[in-house]
Amino acid sequence: MRDEIERYWREIALLVHAMPGAVVARVAEMLDDCRARGGTVFIAGNGGSAATASHFACDLVKGTHLSGRRPFRVVPLTDNMPLVTAWANDTSYERVFAEQLEPLVRPGDVLIAISASGNSPNVLAAARVARRAGAVTVALTGRTGGKLRRLADLAVCVPSETIEQVEDAHMIVAHSLCVALRQHLRVSAPARRVLTDPAPHPAVADLD
Q1: pLDDT digits (tens, 9 = 90+) for 8-61
Q2: What's the gap between Cα 169 and its chain centre?
Q3: Which residue, of 71, 116, 160, 174, has the greatest Cβ tally within 10 A?
């Protein structure tokens, strides 16, 4: 088994070198632009990609948080399981992300749609909602990109047919984006005000 494990590691190393770095850098710029405008980043995926979506959302919020910088607003569409199961039960599993997204998404927001095949019906449905709303869709997908590639404004297509390697690469992309964005925020000029201070309490009258 060691030979098989080491073969997999070698293939991952080669895959990383073949990744579209310029496209990933453009994703970073899109995300930072969304953050700077006060927009929201939505993230969705199925199965292992649902775990990637949740992990990415956590890191994008917490891992890039710096004092004096406007934080990222991020909503993982994978994490509200009562809502996911309610929409699946009352409509269909294909609508579990789209129905959550529709009342929340606004022009200029970003949807990160994760699908190794690029053909997950519920991820495609969410991408269509984002497109109608004037939001930007970023696809993290596999070699061909599937149908999702045609719905996305920008697609990071991992050049592999092996689903495990595609999912590994998606997590590497997520981590590299968070590291790059944190460094960018660290060296950029601080925002004038991120949050306004609450109004001071009125002085208590002397009743004596």
Answers
A1: 999 999 999 999 999 999 999 999 999 999 999 999 999 999 999 999 999 999
A2: 14
A3: 116
